[in-house]
Every structure is written in C-alpha cells, then in structure tokens.
C-alpha cells in the first residue's frame, strides 16, 4: 500500500464536560470548502464540538459527515441545534442549514473569537484562494481582497507537490525551514507548472529542503502581494488549512515584518466557528 | 573538449563600448544633481538641449532583470501592490516599482523623471510608458506620433508622414523651451545630425558581416553595441568613431575567419528581446556549436533591409531617410529635423519587421543562412509576441526549424521555467541530430 | 548484447532490459523527488532480478526522461523524443508519427527518413491534458484512476470543463460537484477536455497521419481519454502493449544499435 503523502490528517472532537442541555442557545456552522469541510457546534460562547475532514465528491454527504463527527458520541442530535448557518464554496449543499452567509463575514467573526478583538487583518489561506480581510475595531469588514484566478499554488497544488516529492504534506513546512537562506522563489505563477519547475531545481543541485523552500517561498510571495493591497498592520491572524504550513506562515511573517497571532483553536475552523456565532446572533436578534 | 574549428578571440573594441555605456548610465544618475532635466522617452533631438537627457524604462528594466532577480522581484511587487497588473510589461513593472521604492539596486536614489515623451509602437505597452511617472508627480507629457505602415512603398504617404513628424517635433521642442525656459542649441543640433548620419553605413557593414560563415560576432556581442547611438545617446563623434572601430575590427575578423563560436556548425536566429535574466542560454547553445546571429531587433542600427528579387540583401528604401540623402545643405533647425528623420517617419523600422511582416523573418533567415529560429512567446510582452506563431509557420515552410518557448516578458523572470527551457533546447538540438560538443 | 533503457519521468520511472530485440524484463516505480537516484537503483535491481541478470551482464545502459541525470550508471543519455522515435520504428515499422502523453508533457514527433526526426512539437505550458492533472482529478472525484479511465459513454450534454488550463478545468469540475452533478459525468467532462487539449496540440503544426500514428506514454492507458481523442482527431492510433515503457524501450534499442 503506497503511502498517501498528500493526505493531511482529519480531526474531530466533542466536549465531554459541557452540559449542552443547560446552554441558552445551541448553534452550528458548516464551512464546505473545495478541499476541506469543517463543522462547529457552539453552546452559547463555548465550542462544543468540531470536525475537519476532506471534502468528498458529494458535498451534501460531506456536510452531513462533518456534522455527525462533531456531534460525536454525545447525546446531542441535529434536532437540538437551534440554528445552523452554512458557508464556504459549497454552502448551498449544507441542506440542513437555515441560512447561508458568505465566508468573509464568517471568517472575520471566527477569527475575532479565536484571537480576540485586537485582530485587525485576517488572511485566509485556503485550497483555491487566499483572502485578506481588514476589519474595523468593531466587527464589521472594512476592506477585502482576493487573489486573482491564477495563483502560485494554494492548498491544491501543495497536495500534488507532496505526492510528487513523496514528502508527507504536514512535514513540508518544517522541512522547508531547514535552510540557511531562502533561494529565489520558483518563478512560475501557474500552480500546475510551479511543481514541475521546483522539481527541475534538483537538476541544479538543490537539496530537498531548498526545493521546498523555493516552492513555499513562491506561494508566500504571491500571497504577500495580494495582502499588500489591504495595507496590513497589527494584529494579524492566519486562518485556513495553509495556516498550518509553517513554511508559508514563517515566510509571510518575514516579508510582512510582523508576527501573527496564534490561538489554541485549529485555524481551519475559523469559518465554521464564525458561522455558528453568526447563527447565534440571528437567534438572539429574533 | 574537441578542438575548435576556427580561431576565436575577444573583441578589442568591447571595453570602449562598456565605457561608453557606463558613462551614459552615469549621466542619468547625476542628472538631478547636475540640475539637468531627465525625460522619459527616446527622442533623437535631445542633444539640442544641453540640459536635457532622455531614458526609457526598457534598458532600466532589462538591466535590473539581468543584475538582480531579488531586487527586480521586490520592485515588481511594489508595483503590483500599488495597483499595476502582473500583466504589465516587466520592464515597466521593474522600473516603476523601483520608482515607488525610491531607489535603485545599489541603494542610490531613483532618477525621477521631469517630463514624459512616449511614442507609440506596435508594442501597445509603449504608450502606457509615461503613465507611472505622471501618476507619481504632475509632469508634462508630449506624445510623439510614430506611424507604422506595412504596405508597398508609397511616396505620397511618406511625404505626409514626414511632415507630421517634422511639425510635431518642432512643436515639442518649442514647448519644452517655453515650459522649462531652456534654449535649444540649433548649432549643436545641426552639427550632431550631420555627424550621426555616419553611424548607419558602419552599422550596416557590421550587420552584413554576420552573414559570413563563421559569424565574426554573436548576438551577445551585438548587445554590447546595438544601443550606442540609439537607446543610449552620447557624444556623436565618439559614437561614430566606435561604430567605425567595430566595423573595422569585424571586417578584419571576417578576412581572417575569426569566429564568435569556434565550433560553429549551426546558425540560429531569434526575435526580440531575449530573457535578460537568463542570457546564459546563449552559452548553453554554444555547447552544441550553435551560434546566434542575432535578430532584426539587435540589428536595428542597420535600418530596414530586405532580400531583393535578384537575391541581394539591401536597404529597403535605399538611402531614403538618411542624412546622406538630404538634398540640400542643412542650415536650419527644420532642415536638421528633416534630415534626422530617418526611415522611422516613413513607417519602417527594422525591429518592427519582426512584428508586422510575417514573411520578413524568412528574408532574414535566408540572408543569414540560418538553420533554426527560436521565437519566444511572451505572455505579458504583447508587442514582442504578436504574429510570432505565424512567423514560425512561415519559417517552417522554408525549412527552418522553429522552437517556441513561453515566459512572461524579457524583463520578468516570472513563468519562465529555466530548467525546462534548457531541456527544450536539448530536445531541439538532439532531434536535429546534434549532440553537445562539450559539457 | 543485452542492453537497457531507463526513462526517469517526473512522476514515474521505467526500466526495460532488452536482448536481441526481445524484452527480458520491465520495472516501474514512482520517481519521488530528492531520493530519485536511490529509487532508480531500486527499480533497476528489481528489473535485473526479474530478468535473472547481474549488472555486469548488461552491455550498455541509456537513460532518458526529465531525470536522466539521476541514472548515475548510465553509459549515455538521450532526449525523450529520440527515444520515442526509436521505439516507434521498432514497434511499427510503418510509423510516421509518435504521440507521447506523459505526466507533465505531451510530445509529437514526426519521423523523417532513416533515423531522422522531422519535427518535435511539445506543449508549451498549458496542459489540461496530462497525467498529473488526471491523477489529481481522480482524487477529487473520489475515484481510483483505473475506475475513472474505464468510464464509458459520452459526457452528458451541457456538462463541460475548461479545456485550455488544468487549473481552470479543476475549478470548473469543483463547480459542477457543487451543483450536484454526478461525479461520473464530471469525470467524463474532464477527460473530454483532456482530449480536446491534446487534439489542439496535434493540430499545432502538422496533423499526424491517420493510420500511421502511434500513441504511447502513461495516459495512453486511459481508455476514456483515448476514445475521446480518437473521435476528435479522427486518427486511428496504434497503441502498443506496455505503452508507458516506450521511452525506456527506445533507449534500450538505441543502446543495442
């Protein structure tokens, strides 16, 4: 059985301590992305359960699976959830959601929850896109920018690269940091060919860490260009799957000359958590 | 390493060319401190204003690409963040990015422009050229018209085009005098026009000599000279002298079979311009014994040429447009302008042939006896790329082997996979039965 | 003399051991990245073992493919189109053209007289039509690659994806999934797009001959793509058994010449 280098670890967790029956409002958020799907269940202001799994070819099925895994072995069922908000690329496929909300607002809300009110710039590093969001001091979006269609590889191409190099995807970041100085980034912006170019660097005598460095530096560089347009300032937070790639995060921090906030929460959950919180807002306003 | 077929030796006149180029670069860097106006553009009459120098973003962008991947990249990002698209010509993105950062590669202050004189060109990026310095600070702009005509020679049309050029040139000169309070030095200008006419015949000889087998010069050698008197302006007498010196030396090389590439066994041509950040591919091709005899772009100082019906390679319009053919003594400013306006005003520049006349490359290929042609496709270099694929088809029809490769733009290394290009060169050579002569 | 050819591609590497025009053994493995040279050794020993030979029994080894320099023990190296041409002439003496569709490159080689090659056309960059893309798509669609390539039937009306850019095609495919189009239909649309793209490369300079064109390379095993390609180009491709070994075979043949 060949090792699946591209498969990143999925996760799910349900709280054993929170007595959800005593909560005032139980809401949920489901974020269906083109590559990964997350769910989050909030009991008032506490995270009760979550799941993070690969989006399959059947989006409805993925949403259901994410929900089931977040509910886990608890006695809570879908019926106990007061309101669900769906978000993300595939939001229309959260069939049990009462409403869909755009992922910009959901990410912003989720990031403020995870990092506190000081966060001003949120950069979502996803599978197909990167988005930079600038917030006011209150929870409203001031500015927002997204990458152009052509991008030197977001999450999708990293999977292909892991496969080609036979490096486990969750190790790519760390391995890329084992260089004294970054080489010039891979020049190709098209992510289909950035891979080929990176592999061509072995021919020039590059070591694996240097190839990874050139490749991830290129991704960070492209993202840096996109974020530049919202004039980043402190505090900064990264969300999305690629926020877990230290090779990209460290390089972004270096280019932007600022360190991002971290939190105890999985950065991939920001959209789902935000959606669940927005669901609670809706319930409380009604 | 196999024994060379022909003798090679470096060009003696190369150092002088390097010196002249450096002097010109110096003059741009010190323009501001000398309180001399710096214009964005490339007008031929700038020498008439003692306190005016001209520079385009092309050579700046190209030099940046050639000298530092890192600095060019940072400049392009600076341009992008300010709203310039990635699809903008890399020369501009490099140069104006540096302008936004305020400094050049070595940390010295960026030479900000005082006025803009762009000209239109088959490359539509050219008219955009002036925008960035104008966005940066409110400076005057004078648009130079540049006609482009692809049909058979039409002398009535030419008359009209020349008149238009003369009129607009006189107008721009007067406006600069008025706005900047500078006096145009007619005597100096007339003198330079009379002198500069001497460049062309030497340049024509040099170009023609490269038809010799083995070629005495290669494309890389040409790059050291082709801007002298054109893109980079210096003292006219000195410029004529270096072209003469080059001509004399190349003539001697031809007489003695001194080659640019000692193992020349394959001759190839290309189109303008090359990837300035990756000029080592010429050296790579030399490992196969392949010499690049240039492009119509790099031969531009010779003026437009074509293959006549009798097989001769001759100037397309004879002496028309050269100061030598000016039919009366040059006494006034207007006389000098009329004499100075070369074939450009008649709608023919050699370098434009590459773009506007798909069969022009065939003429060039036959005259220079090429075996193959490398025609890059530049995604962001619109003017460099239009009609290239078609030209490739035309060249194939006469038996010239064609290779296309892709990239962003000659000044922008984005999207040029260098190792893949080397692989493509290997495939191109080996599939024609040629293996490397050296590692 | 016993000879061998080793074709090191970006995704997989292939080895062929040849004696008097007969293949004694084949070996295949995933190339990997940094440890490619090591994997070459591994695949090589496996092929030798299958042929029951020792390295000393091999008279000459020629390497080809993008990673040809990683075959440290090769006696010579040759570019892929030349290897393809050798294989083509051997497998089908009447062949005039060979189309090689691999993981990240497509090549069209037109054969001239004797040993010569008239022309080589390669995809420049844009490659909706290649192996890496198909593999990635199969993963997205939750199918095994074999399953996807074995899908029969034409794509459903109105279900198409971009046929110029693999990235755009992938985004289109995801959009179709989002609209709950059955994944088999999405798969068919993807493979149709691949065929369209390859066909446009075939059209680039010289249209290959209808009856004397060979198809080799890994993607030639994808029946759905091949059927769509045959339909669109109207070329009756000759597809040899073990088509993905063509490069290695060609290199081995050249070594024997």
Question: What's the quick description here?
Answer:
The complex is a heterotrimer of chains A (286), B (439) and C (257). Chain A has 286 residues and is an alpha/beta fold.
Please characterize this protein's 3D structure.
By secondary structure, chain A is α/β, with parallel strands linked by helices. Chain A folds into two domains: 120 residues, 2-Layer Sandwich (Nucleotidyltransferase, domain 5); 141 residues, ATPase, nucleotide binding domain (Nucleotidyltransferase, domain 5, 2-Layer Sandwich), CATH 3.30.420. Chain A contains eight helices and ten strands. In chain A, strands 1-4-3-2-5-6 form a six-stranded mixed sheet. A four-stranded mixed sheet of chain A has the order 9-8-7-10, with helices on both faces. In chain A, helix 3 packs parallel to helix 5 and helix 5 packs antiparallel against helix 6. The relative contact order of chain A is 0.19. The mean pLDDT of chain A is 92. Chain B is an alpha/beta fold and 439 residues long. Chain B is built from 17 helices and eleven strands. In chain B, strands 7-6-10-11 form a four-stranded parallel sheet, with helices on both faces. In chain B, strands 3-2-4 form a three-stranded parallel sheet. In chain B, a hairpin with a 5-residue loop joins strand 8 and strand 9. By secondary structure, chain C is an alpha/beta fold. In chain C, strand 7 and strand 8 form a beta hairpin. Classes of the chains: A alpha/beta (286), B alpha/beta (439), C alpha/beta (257).
């Amino acid at each position: 059985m060949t090792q699946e280098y591209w498969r990143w670890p999925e996760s799910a967790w349900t709280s054993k301590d929170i007595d959800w029956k005593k909560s005032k409002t139980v809401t949920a958020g489901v974020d269906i992305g083109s590559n990964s799907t997350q769910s989050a269940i909030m009991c008032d202001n506490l995270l009760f359960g979550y799941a993070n799994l690969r989006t399959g070819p059947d989006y409805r099925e993925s949403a259901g699976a994410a929900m089931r895994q977040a509910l886990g072995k608890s006695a809570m069922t879908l019926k106990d959830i007061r309101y669900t908000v769906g978000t993300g690329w595939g939001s229309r496929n959260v069939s049990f959601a009462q409403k869909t909300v755009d992922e910009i607002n959901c990410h912003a809300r989720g990031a403020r929850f995870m990092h506190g009110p000081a966060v001003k710039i949120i950069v979502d590093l996803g599978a197909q896109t990167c988005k930079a969001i600038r917030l006011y001091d209150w929870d409203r979006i001031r500015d927002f920018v997204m990458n152009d269609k052509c991008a030197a590889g977001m999450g999708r191409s990293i999977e292909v690269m892991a496969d080609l190099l036979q490096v486990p995807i969750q190790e790519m970041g760390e391995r890329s940091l084992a260089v004294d100085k970054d080489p010039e980034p891979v020049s190709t912006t098209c992510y289909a060919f950035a891979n080929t170019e990176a592999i061509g660097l072995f021919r020039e005598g590059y070591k694996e860490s240097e190839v990874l460095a050139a490749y991830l530096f290129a991704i960070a560089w492209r993202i840096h260009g996109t974020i530049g347009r919202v004039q980043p300032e402190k505090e900064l937070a990264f969300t999305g799957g690629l926020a877990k790639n230290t090779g990209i995060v460290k390089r972004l921090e270096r280019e932007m000359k600022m360190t991002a906030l971290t939190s105890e929460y999985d950065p991939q959950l920001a959209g789902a958590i935000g959606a669940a919180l927005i669901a609670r807002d809706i319930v409380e306003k009604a | 390493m196999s024994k060379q077929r022909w003798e090679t030796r470096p060009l003696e006149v190369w150092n002088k060319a390097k010196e002249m180029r450096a002097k010109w670069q110096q003059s741009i860097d010190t323009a501001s401190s000398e309180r001399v106006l710096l214009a964005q553009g490339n007008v031929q009459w700038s020498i008439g204003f003692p306190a005016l120098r001209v520079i385009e973003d092309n050579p700046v962008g190209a030099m940046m690409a050639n000298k530092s991947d890192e600095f060019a990249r940072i400049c392009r990002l600076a341009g992008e963040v300010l709203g310039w698209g990635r699809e903008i010509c890399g020369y501009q993105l490099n140069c104006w990015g540096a302008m936004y950062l305020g400094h050049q590669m070595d940390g010295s202050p960026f030479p900000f422009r005082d006025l803009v004189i762009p000209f239109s060109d088959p490359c539509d990026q050219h008219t955009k050229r002036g925008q960035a310095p104008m966005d940066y600070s409110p400076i005057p702009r004078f648009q130079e018209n540049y006609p482009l005509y692809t049909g058979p020679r039409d002398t009535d049309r030419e008359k009209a085009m020349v008149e238009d050029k003369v009129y607009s040139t006189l107008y721009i000169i007067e406006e600069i005098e008025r706005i900047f309070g500078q006096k145009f030095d007619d005597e100096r200008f007339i003198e330079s026009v009379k002198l500069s006419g001497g460049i062309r015949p030497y340049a024509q000889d040099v170009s023609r000599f490269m038809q010799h087998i083995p070629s005495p010069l290669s494309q890389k050698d040409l790059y050291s000279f082709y801007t002298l008197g054109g893109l980079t302006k210096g003292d006219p007498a000195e410029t004529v002298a270096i072209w003469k010196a080059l001509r004399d030396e190349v003539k001697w090389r031809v007489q003695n079979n001194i080659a640019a590439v000692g193992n020349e066994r394959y001759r190839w041509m290309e189109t303008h311009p090359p990837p300035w950040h990756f000029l080592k591919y010429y050296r790579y091709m030399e490992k196969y014994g392949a010499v690049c005899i240039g492009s119509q772009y790099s031969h531009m100082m010779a003026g437009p040429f074509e293959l006549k019906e009798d097989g001769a390679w001759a100037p397309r319009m004879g002496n028309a447009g050269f100061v030598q053919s000016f039919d009366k003594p040059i006494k006034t400013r207007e006389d000098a302008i009329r004499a100075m306006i070369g074939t450009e005003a008649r709608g023919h520049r050699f370098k434009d042939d590459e773009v506007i006349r798909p069969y022009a490359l065939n003429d060039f290929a036959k005259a220079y006896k090429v075996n193959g042609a490398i025609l890059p496709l530049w995604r962001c270099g619109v003017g460099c790329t239009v009609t290239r694929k078609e030209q490739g088809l035309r060249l194939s029809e006469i038996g010239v082997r064609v290779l296309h490769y892709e990239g962003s733009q000659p000044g922008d290394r984005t999207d040029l996979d260098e190792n893949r290009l080397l692989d493509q060169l290997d495939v191109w050579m080996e599939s024609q039965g040629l293996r490397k002569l050296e590692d | 003399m016993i000879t061998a050819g080793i074709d090191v591609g970006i995704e997989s590497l292939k080895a062929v051991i040849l004696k008097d025009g007969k293949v004694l053994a084949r070996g295949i493995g995933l190339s990997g990245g940094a440890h490619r040279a090591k994997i070459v050794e591994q695949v090589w020993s496996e092929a030798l073992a299958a042929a029951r030979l020792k390295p000393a029994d091999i008279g000459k080894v020629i390497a080809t493919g993008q990673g040809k320099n990683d075959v440290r023990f090769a006696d010579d190296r040759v570019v892929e189109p030349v290897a393809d041409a050798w294989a083509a002439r051997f497998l089908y003496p009447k062949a005039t053209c060979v189309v090689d569709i691999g993981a990240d490159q497509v090549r069209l080689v037109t054969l001239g007289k004797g040993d010569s090659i008239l022309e080589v056309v390669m995809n420049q960059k844009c490659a909706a039509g290649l192996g890496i893309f198909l593999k990635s798509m199969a993963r997205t669609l939750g199918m095994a690659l074999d399953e996807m390539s074995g899908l029969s039937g034409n794509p459903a009306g109105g279900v198409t994806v971009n046929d110029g850019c693999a990235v755009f095609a992938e985004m289109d495919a995801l959009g179709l999934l989002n609209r709950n189009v059955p994944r088999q239909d999405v798969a068919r649309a993807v493979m149709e797009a691949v065929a369209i793209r390859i066909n446009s490369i075939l059209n680039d300079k010289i249209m290959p001959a209808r009856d004397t064109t060979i198809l080799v390379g890994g993607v030639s095993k994808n029946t759905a793509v091949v059927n769509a390609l045959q339909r669109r180009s109207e070329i009756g491709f000759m597809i040899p058994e073990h088509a993905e070994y063509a490069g290695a075979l060609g290199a081995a043949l050249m070594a024997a010449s």
